Each structure stands twice: as C-alpha cells, then as structure tokens.
Amino acid sequence: MANDLSDRKTSGRVTILDVAAAAGVSKSTVSRILDERLPRASNPTADRVRQVAADLGYVRDVSAANLRRGTSLTLGVIVPRLTDTVMAMLYESLARACSRRGRSAIVATTDDRPEAVRAAADSLFNRGVDGLVLATTRTDDDFASELRDRGIPFVLALRGDGHSAASLGDDDLGGWLATRHLIDLGHRRIALIAGPEHASNALGRVEGYRRAMAEAGLPVDPSWVVPSAFSIEGGAEAVQGILKLDPRPTAIFAVNDNTAIGAMSVIQRAGLNIPSDISLVGYNDIPLVSHLSTPLTTVRVPFDQIATGALELLLAGSTDEQRIATPTLIPRATSAAPGR
C-alpha cells in the first residue's frame, strides 16, 4: 500500500478517482466524505477515505466543484487563436448565444498546443466558469477524457472526437459539395489542400472530397493531396508543390478559406489566372472572401447554429449527443469550367 501511494504521488495531479481507487470505494462516496459543506462523517470508511486522501496528497478542486454547481453564469471558450477568423467568428457566435440566455463567455487561446489547452482550462477554472466549450480537440490528444474524469462540464465545437458531446458542421458533406461542384463544372484533376491531420473537421472534408471523386469514378493521385496548416502561409506553401505537377490539376479545393487565400496569392504571382487556368474553392465563408478582387467560391458554415447547439448541449448536461449543422455551397468567381 505504501509503495502504491508513493507511486501515485509522483505520477501527477491526484484526482478524486485516484482516492476512490486506493480506498476501494466509489467516486461519489469520496466526493461526499470530502465535501466540507456536508456534516463530517465519523465511521471507518470515512476515516479511511480521509487518510488515503491525505497520504496521496489530494487537494480538493474548488473550481471544479463550482463548475458542477453552475454558479457563475459564465462559460469558458478555448480556441487555438483569435487571429484565425473562423475561431473569432465561432467565439462571437457563442458570445451572442450566451447573451440570449443571460450568460457571458470568456475566451482563452492556445496556439493549438495540447499543453496550452490544459493551462487555459486551469486558468478558466480558477475564474469559476460554469463549463467549457472546446474548439481545440486533436486526434492525437484526449484532453476531453481528462475533463470527463474530473466531472467538468464541457462540449466540443467545430472539432469532435466521436464520443463526447459536440456541435459540429457536416464536414464530410461540405467536402463533398465543394468537390462535386468542381466535378460538375467539368474538372477531373482536382487537388486538395487538406489542412492539418490532427483536426477532425479537416479530416471530414478530406473524406467528402474522396467520396465525391470515387462516386464520379475519378482517381485521386496521392500527389494531389497536400496537408497544410489552417493559415494563409500554410495554403501558400501547399500550393507551390501542386503547381509543379505535370499534368497540373485544373482545380483546387482548400479545406479552409485562409489556405485558399494563401493559395490564390501564389497562383496569381505565378502568372496564372483564376479561374481560367485553375479553379479554386475554399471553406467557411469568412467575410473577407466575398470582397476579394476575384470573390472566392466557398462552403458556408452556419456558425450561429453551431454555437447555439454547443450552448444547449452544455446547459443540458449532455455527455455524448452530437449536433450536426448543414453547410452550403456558395459559388462565386473563382470556379468555372476548365479553360474558361
């Protein structure tokens, strides 16, 4: 027992689940015994739980307790960065949805780094938020499970993990709509700026692209699919390799408007015309893209609907429900038949 306790002490933050496991009782029993608001129990089980908690170095998370009681009327929103227009639009939509419910929202940014997500969550906990909306979920990290183990209310937005409560866009459908649009215009060699492989929304759009190509009986050359960051720089870098292909694709679907803008700048600097030399489709319909010199064809994401869904799931205490919002293709001047 002593060695086990020593191991637990050195393995990281001690949770109520650690105390329950070491004491051989349920999580709810530990919570009840260690809750200072309740009368102090005096019996062998309570004594054992308090001793195990002391031996493990357990410190009650007051902020988590406040979250479960839902007392602050404030929600914490964690996004990769607010310089990303998509994330700024999501946060603004969440703030409006909160305001309609008599609540407020505060935001923390992480630069899409898992360790920064944890620090942001701790910071928001310390400010007493009632729950978290996470737009930072990664396929290579399972922070949602950590929150679930601690009993922290949360919901995922834009990016999901397949088992937590989430309000998402139908990214597979959106990728299919963008690609099908280009196919219907007559394109057969369609490249893809695929976004980051750790983001489920990018992966969904990639699947939609592949599904549309397969349904049309069109092959996908591996060299046509290029991962990228969700950024202008990422799109600019990705498209350079695509333009060197022989034969060159006649169209590009970029799974994010920022990457499409980056690609557009490189294409135009290369002396090529959009759309007569190469068509381009983006994703999200951020406000800027309709005002470009050549307005961008894109897929519109209903951010207000996603934000409202996330708030409703969080307030309802859902742990696994999925809300899926339908995107819409917005044809503009950057897509046309090949050679037009």
Task: Describe the protein.
The protein has 340 residues and is α/β, with parallel strands linked by helices. The protein folds into three domains: 2-60, lambda repressor-like DNA-binding domains (434 Repressor (Amino-terminal Domain)); 72-169 and 304-326, Response regulator (Rossmann fold); 171-301, Response regulator (Rossmann fold, 3-Layer(aba) Sandwich), CATH 3.40.50. 44% of the residues lie in helices and 14% in strands. The chain has 13 helices and twelve strands. The chain has a six-stranded parallel sheet, sandwiched between helices. A four-stranded parallel sheet has the order 7-6-8-9, with helices on both faces. α6 (85-100) crosses α13 and α11 packs across α12. The longest helix has 16 residues, at 85-100. The radius of gyration is 24 Å and the shape is elongated.
